[in-house]
Amino acid sequence: MPARTHTRTTRPATAGVEVRLPWWAVALPAVAFGALLLLIAGPGQAHAATGDPVVGRLLERLVDLLTR
To answer: Which is nearest to 36 in space by CA: 44, 26, 46?
Structure first.
């Protein structure tokens, strides 16, 4: 009496791995990079590098909050 062989089910090969990250997994490194860049550049240089005065004022306020 012949023994039955187990056949494997063939699954279609995936083209790549899909990974879904939460929003904060991208936002936190970006914020940390910006904060470190502000610490290196200083508020005066960061203000001179931006063309928009609103962004410069925002950067100055962030530096003031971080230095308190």
So the answer is: 46
Structure token digits, residue 61:
């306020």
In a domain, 38, yes or no: no
Residues 46, 59 contacting (CB under 8 angstroms): yes
Cβ partners under 8 Å of residue 46, min gap 6: 37, 38, 56, 59, 60, 63
pLDDT over 80 (residue 26): yes
Please give the model's pTM, rounded to 2 decimal places: 0.37
Segments forming the whole domain that contains residue 66: 43-68
3-state secondary structure 20-31: CCCHHHHHHHHH
Q: Answer whether residue 13 is part of any domain.
A: no
